[in-house]
Amino acid sequence: MTLLSIENLSLSIHQFDILHDVTLSIAAGEIVAVTGESGSGKSMTALATMQLLPKGAHTTGRIVLGDREITALDETTLCTMRGNDMGMVFQEPMTALNPVQTIGAQVAETIRIHDRTITRAEALDRAAETLTRVGLPQDRFPLGRYPHELSGGQRQRVVIAMAIALQPRLLIADEPTTALDVTTQAQILDLLKRLAKEDDMGLLMITHDLAVVADMADRIVVMRNGKIVEQGETGHLLRHMQHPYTKMLFEASGHRVNLPAAPAPAPLMRVERVIRDYRLPRTSVFGAPGSFRAVDDVSFTIQRGERLGLVGESGCGKSTLTRALLGLEQVQGGSITLDGEPVFTGTRPNLAVRRKMQVVFQDPFGSFNPRHRVDRLITEPFHLLPDPPSGAARTRAIDEALLAVGLTPRDATKYIHEFSGGQRQRIAIARALIIRPDLILFDEAVSALDVSVRAQILDLLADLCGAYDLTYLFISHDLSVVRTVTDRVLVMKSGKIVEEGLTKDVFERPQHHYTKTLIDAAPILPDIGVPA
Amino acid sequence: MKRNLILGGLLSALFVLAALISFAWTPYDHTALDIPNKLKTPYAEHLLGTDHFGRDLLSMIMVGARTSIAVALVAVGIGMGLGVPLGLWAAARSGSLVDEVIMRGNDLVFAFPSLVIAILITAIFGAGAVNAIIAIGIFNIPVFARITRGAALSLWQREFILAARVAGKNAARISVEHILPNVTNLLIVQGTIQFSLGILAEAGLSYVGLGAQPPTPSWGRMLADAQTLVSIAPHMALVPGFAIILTVLGLNLMGDGLRDYLDPRLRVART
Predict the structure, then answer these.
(1) How far apart are the C-alpha atoms of A240 and A248, rounded to whole Å?
(2) pLDDT digits (tens, 9 = 90+) for A318-335
(3) In chain B, which residues have their Cβ closer than 8 Å to the Cβ of A362?
(4) Which residues contact A237 (CB under 8 A, 6 or more apart)?
(5) Interface ipTM
(6) Alpha-carbon distance A498 to A521, whole Å?
(7) Which of A44, A87, A182, B226 could in theory staple to B237 by disulfide, Cβ–Cβ 3.0 to 4.6 A?
């Protein structure tokens, strides 16, 4: 039986077309995944179903839930339906919960809004029941907990509990696991699957992650620029992709690059028994503040010309280690040397060593000063040189760096907001390359990018490896990416390196149980016969 | 959005122009008494009328604009000149003793009602435009220090600052090259607001007789003079009153407009 059917839905916001002619349906108990890259309109489809559209939105077409046409209803009726007939789970569990209310109160609130006759105590009882259902049993997670006392995955469970408290017929999940670690992601996906089955609930899942889609959806809808390019039953669609865009998406997701062979090992950076402690805030006026060990006795060596990967989940100390390697922060123990020289001397960073290192950050939007032009942005590292090039030599260096990353010299006079996310990441790489460093750190450098753009950036990296003899440390939580762009990999957990070895060996024969968990939890893209 | 800038700019320019012209020319000498023509409502010879001594109000407004603008400008200058570097310094060393000392010093200044302290200063050092400037200026320092530190703190967390640190730049240089350009928006808006508040404060001090001393005309004292005569010559109060309102409005509109105009991100969205 069809639960939700969207027919010829078109949507424009202030004359700007967002969706064209979207038609899809969900049956009770069915999981439908809508996938596509950013700007494809997948989230807007979800918001249109909830009728939570921004101001100035104009829709045509029909959205029918059960026997009611949602598009024709007024706001009051819609309010009774939201939460009751349809629930929604958002991407960011940090912001979807009210930080000053207990989790019990928030789940109970959803129940009480829709049923005025229910008493507060009854609502709390039902909240407790619902929380137990989503895997937060009362003995360990009482109703009086606040969101900040829970981990990201536990918070997402609370958000799910709020959405399913009244057993809606339709659950919409907008990127429910994107903000979570792989091991947590696997648990949340299992939970959603189980709930959909138990309550015979239709699940509309919005996600950009094709591995997740392939893993759990009954049917797949692929969107691009506000249009549905292809939809069908999962197994069938994966075997017989019709549209070139769908093929491109799947190919890009499993994109492999060919790295040139690494040169003979010669140590470049040595990290020996590094310890980094953070001071915790004082808990009492006179007591000594406690401390937190973010990096615990870490040792490794990066060889010249080597592509080393560092994987781990959030909070494992990856970023702290990156800062220590760059000499941005002082370490509390151990030594970090590049070419035999320490990155940090006395109380200040060693600029002679800093000159040989550069970094590319994750956020393509935050890593540039919006008020400077590209030429000034990418020449910033020149500040490290005792004798920075000027005049024609400077222009030549800028042109060369821009060309190397696939941009044109004309881009030098533009501002950063004129570029897309992928182009910005290219500019970030140009900035890192311009002083020809011995070592580049990539801190989640491709995590914020769409799959097709990510594939291009990875290709660029492989090309640059050939042209510049790059040595880099690639830090990421994304196992599939690390697997293709590195020679050797380190696995980090709770501030310690738990496993180290050639990338191929670690992925095929993980030794440490944590590495095994990590690799097992990562959703795998099905083999669809695309040449790797 | 652009309308604000133009309207605000025109209003502000009008008063700046009036002040500048007054150096070279005014319709009458602003100190010349003309008792037979006292308390005249606006007419052809005196465009804005005359006061109780028969002095030409237009001339007084023009010369008074000079006082108001000079006091407010220097006061904002003192506030920005000391407050912004203090704010940048506090943000760059956030959590340290320097930060603590600067911010607690700010709190100390904030803890006193500004006008009361201004009255105290003029009472001790004597009434006059210079003391009014210093009094108003001191209270501008914490405003700018706070706003700069607040904005700078969040900027320090951004990745482009981290990138600059990787490029080996020290805190002072990052503050000037990266933080300052990104807080100018706020400073411009706050600057125009403080400028208009400065004009109001100067008018307030002059009103109670602690600002510029006679015969230097001042909008605040013109209001004070008009107070007892408001029932028979309301124009005497309306003229300086409107001068103050329009200048303050113009400056605020201009501040808003400038912020939109100066942001390169918004500029592209418009074209």
Answers:
(1) 13
(2) 888 988 888 888 888 888
(3) 159
(4) A219, A220, A230, A231, A246
(5) 0.71
(6) 17
(7) B226
Alpha-carbon distance of B19 to B66, in angstroms, equals 5
Confidence of residue A16 (pLDDT cuts 50, 70, 90): confident
Residue B22, SS3?
A: helix
What is the extent of the structural domain holding B244?
A: 65-270
Q: What residues in A contact B155, CB-CB < 8 Å?
A: none
pLDDT in tens, B193-203: 899 888 888 88
Question: pTM of the full predicted structure?
Answer: 0.78
Contact by Cβ (8 Å): A364, A449: yes
Of B160, B168, B268, the CB nearest to A368: B160
Q: How many H helices and E strands in chain B?
A: 11, 0
Domain assignment present for residue B14? The answer is no
The verdict on A361 touching B (C-beta cutoff 8 Å) is yes
Number of domains into which chain B is organized: 1
Flag if B166 and A417 touch (Cβ within 8 Å): no
Phi, psi dihedrals of residue A439, rounded to the nearest 5°: -140, 135
User: d(Cα B200, Cα B115) in Å, to the nearest integer?
Assistant: 11
Cβ-defined contact of A418 to B268 (cutoff 8 Å): yes
Please tell me the distance from the alpha carbon of residue B55 to that of residue B49, in angstroms, as a whole number.
9
Which candidate from B158, B182, B268 shows the least CB-CB separation from A417? B268
Residue-wise burial string across A490-525, b where 16 or more C-beta atoms lie within 10 A, e elsewhere: bbbbebbbbbbbebeebbeebeeebbeebbebbbeb
- Shared-domain flag, residues A133 and A46: yes
Residue A117 sits in a domain whose CATH number is 3.40.50.300
Indicate the DSSP class of residue A286. S
First to last CA, chain B: 13
**Contact: A415, B182; criterion CB under 8 Å:** no
Chain B contact probe: residue of A371, A379, A413, A429 with most B CBs at under 10 A? A371
8 Å CB contact of B163 and A367: yes
Answer yes or no: are the C-beta atoms of A50 and A233 closer than 8 Å. Answer: no
Q: Using a CB-CB distance cutoff of 8 angstroms, which residues of chain B are in contact with residue A428?
A: 163
> Are B160 and A328 an interchain contact pair (Cβ–Cβ within 8 Å)?
no
pLDDT band at B271 (very low <50, low <70, confident <90, very high): very low
Q: Which residues of B9-30 are buried (b: 16+ CB within 10 A; e: fewer)?
A: bebbeebbebbeebeeebebeb
Q: Judge whether A424 is closer than 8 Å to chain B, CB to CB.
A: no
Question: What's the sign of the alpha-carbon dihedral B42, B43, B47, B51?
Answer: negative
Number of domains in chain A: 2
Chain B contact present for A415, CB below 8 A: yes
Instruction: Determine the Cα angle at B102 with ends B183 and A367, to 5°.
Output: 30
Token representation of residue A257: 């690059």
Q: Hey, are the CB atoms on B162 and A383 less than 8 Å from each other?
A: no
Nearest to A367 among B159, B167, B181 (CB): B159
Which H or E run includes A497?
strand A496-502
- Segment (H or E) for A443: strand A439-443
Q: Which two tokens stand for residue B56?
A: 């030409």
For chain A, how many helices (H) and strands (E)? Answer: 18, 22
| pLDDT classification of A218: cutoffs 50, 70, 90 | very high
| B121 is a domain residue | yes
CA closest to A353 among chain B residues:
B168
Instruction: Collect all residues of chain B within an 8 Å Cβ-Cβ radius of residue A367.
Output: 158-160, 162-163
Range of the domain at A297: 267-280+289-356+478-523
Q: The domain spanning residue B130 has which CATH number?
A: 1.10.3720.10
- What is the Cα–Cα distance from A344 to A324, expressed in whole angstroms? 9
How many angstroms separate the CA of residue B145 from the nearest CA in chain A? 22
Using CA coordinates, name the residue in chain B closest to A358.
Answer: B166
What residues of B are in contact with residue A358 (Cβ under 8 Å)?
A: 166
